[in-house]
Amino acid sequence: MLYIADLDTPCVLVDLDVLKANIEEMATLSMQAGKRFRPHVKTHKCIEIATMQHDAGADGITVAKASEAEVFAAAGFSDIFIANLIVGQPKLDHIVRLAETCRLTVGLDSVAVAEPIARAAEARGVVIQALIEVDTGHGRTGVRTVEEAVRIATLLRTYGHVSLQGVYTHEGHAYRASREQLPELCRNVVRNLSAMREAAERAYGEPLLAVSVGSTPSTQAMSTIAEVTELRPGNYVFRDATQVRLGSPVERCALTVLTTVIARPSSTEAVLDAGSKALSGDGDCLCGHGFALGHPEARVDWCSEEHGHLHLGTSNWRPALGQKIRIVPAHACTCVNMHSWLWIVRGDEVLARWPVSARGRLL
Ligand code: PLP
User: Fold this and answer.
1) Residue 323 — φ and ψ, nearest 5°?
2) Separation of 98 CA from ligand 1 center, angstroms?
3) SS3 state at 93
4) 83 lines ligand 1 (CB under 6 A)
5) 234: Cβ below 6 Å to ligand 1?
6) What pLDDT is recorded for position 55?
7) pLDDT digit string, tens, across residues 282-335
8) 262 CA distance to ligand 1 centroid (A)?
9) What are the beta bridge partners of residue 132?
């Protein structure tokens, strides 16, 4: 039997029971609400975890990149939504090849993105599903006006090889809202999506049924809104220090980084062997790069590449040099992409080691 204490550091631990509970909770929520569930697997990039999500009732998966989709398609996943904009010839070549192996859906937010996809699909003789992306307040990608949505729908009427299905958004601005603000924020997001969907449907001349949303903090509120047809949360499988800051219980954090205290420069500081290359560079203004499991007041306030600076100023806890401690990272999704393996644990025991099969799949 292998124990956590036997592992060299830094490495990623995933608590199997917490992971299972998180997966089942969201799948049940979606099923009870009658929503399609297509979780975003960029969070874990791991075939074993996507298989758990599938077995719990997911109807396909969402990915961010064509090369990520390739890994999951090769593992047998047959319904894949690349919730991103495909731009450039190498990616067009990639997606038309992929569309021969699975039911592929892509995002579109302009005619300039849509037209080359439609031409490439036609040339290859494949059908690609598409959803119009709407910017509902996050300020990233997505159409911002009804006219843009109508232009895309009008274009696609003339191309038989792209089948428009509806609209989608990533309501990432839910991360900037309080719990009390979430229901209103979600209602506004869906109002915006519905207006886009209706206008696009009139221009397309066929029913566009899908209204797809995705963001862990908003999933509960979104599940209660009738117009929403699909939920695509990602981070919920692990949760992280950012979710804890938003009100998620620490007990639901499935992922931690095991690290060793390699220096104690003063009574209120510990230096860890996990820096930005183990925790990722993503931080949060309130939770820093993460906190110590069991000691949430002890925060990694800054990182260099191989070192994390744990600030103990507000804590009575004094970890010793050589002690192994577990950090709940600020952002589990970027943390995973720094590692090749996930160590699957229950209590103190190590049960398995799963590969992060789509690690570094950025194309
Ligand atoms: N859908 C899209 C397009 C996203 O970009 C993301 C996250 O970045 C998600 C869904 C899932 O969001 P979360 O990780 O907050 O659950």
Assistant:
1) -70, 140
2) 22
3) helix
4) yes
5) yes
6) 98
7) 988 778 999 999 999 999 999 999 999 999 988 999 999 999 999 999 999 999
8) 35
9) 108, 167
> Are residues 343 and 7 in contact, defined by beta-carbon separation less than 8 angstroms?
yes
Helix (H) or strand (E) holding 60: none
From ligand 1's centre to the CA of 4, what distance in Å?
31
Strands 230-231 and 36-37: parallel
41 CA → ligand 1 middle, Å = 9
Q: Which residues of 11-37 are buried (b: 16+ CB within 10 A; e: fewer)?
A: bbbbbbebbeebbeebbebbeebebbb
Q: What is the pLDDT of residue 313?
A: 86
CA distance 247 to 241: 10
- Residue 147's pLDDT is 98
Low-confidence ranges of the chain (pLDDT < 50): none
Say if residues 308 and 300 touch (Cβ distance below 8 Å): yes
CA-nearest residue for atom 15, ligand 1, is 215
Closest Cα partner for 78 from 3, 129, 132, 29?
129
- Tokens representing 36 are 């399609």
User: Ligand 1, closest atom to CA 217?
Assistant: 15
Atom 5 (ligand 1) nearest CA? 170
CB contact at 8 A, 24 and 31: no
What are the structure tokens assigned to 75, written together? 């593992």
d(CA 267, ligand 1 centre) in Å: 40
CA of 80 to the centre of ligand 1 (A): 15
Tell me which residue has tokens 């205290």: 261
Ligand 1 pocket check for 216: Cβ under 6 Å: yes
